[in-house]
């Protein structure tokens, strides 16, 4: 998928520079602390950008003890942490198939949903969400383009600024 197809990429308001996996972990940790029931994080980025790596680090800081695998083939996997954690990968789903899965049960449920390749099902996502487009800038460097939609996520911005998220 090109950057242009992803609304969250080119028009993102916020940016976070991760020099390496540790840097990615700092963002994942901050977001895991902010997460509440009904939190939806939409992840995009090219193959191998680090969507699953980010998800694993997010899960770790949400208190998930189980191994979080790439959900490319399972589509949706549920874990238990401080809150339930719903990990999705919609890469192999058509919009119709995704629609039939009744994803709203997850999005508006008791847990936190993280969707890899979220822009493929943009129409099915809640309006209020946090979007991250992961751009690969070097072997370990990732530029995270972040958009917040809705008052809840807007209220997270000060905490995100503290870890280095800045206006893009
Ligand atoms: N700063 C970083 N942030 C995230 N991943 C990184 C970083 N630096 C190196 N990596 C490595 O990049 C790889 C990212 O792979 P990952 O499977 O997470 O990508 P993905 O976006 O989920 O790919 P796919 O599109 O196949 O689902 C991992 O091996 C990870 O360790
Ligand atoms: Mg992945």
Task: Please tell me about this protein's structure.
This protein starts with 6 loop residues before the first helix and ends with a strand. The chain has seven helices and eight strands, in the order αβαβαββααβββααβ. It has one domain (11-167): P-loop containing nucleotide triphosphate hydrolases (Rossmann fold, 3-Layer(aba) Sandwich). The longest helix has 14 residues, at 21-34. An eight-stranded mixed sheet has the order 3-4-5-2-6-7-1-8. The chain is globular and about 40 Å long. It has helices at 7-10, 21-34, 51-61, 95-100, 104-107, 151-154, 157-162; strands spanning 14-18, 40-45, 76-80, 84-89, 112-116, 129-136, 142-149, 166-167. A hairpin with a 5-residue loop joins strand 6 (129-136) and strand 7. 29% of the residues lie in helices and 27% in strands. The protein has 168 residues and is α/β, with parallel strands linked by helices. Residues 51-52, 70, 89, 116 line the site of magnesium ion.
Q: How many β-strand stretches?
A: 8
Order of helices and strands: HEHEHEEHHEEEHHE
Ligand inventory: adenosine-5'-triphosphate, magnesium ion
Under the CATH scheme, the architecture is 3-Layer(aba) Sandwich
Topology:
Elements lengths: L6 H4 L3 E5 L2 H14 L5 E6 L5 H11 L14 E5 L3 E6 L5 H6 L3 H4 L4 E5 L12 E8 L5 E8 L1 H4 L2 H6 L3 E2 L1
Parallel strand pairs: 2-5, 2-6, 4-5
Antiparallel strand pairs: 1-7, 1-8, 3-4, 6-7
Helix pairs in contact: 2-3
The structure holds adenosine-5'-triphosphate and magnesium ion.
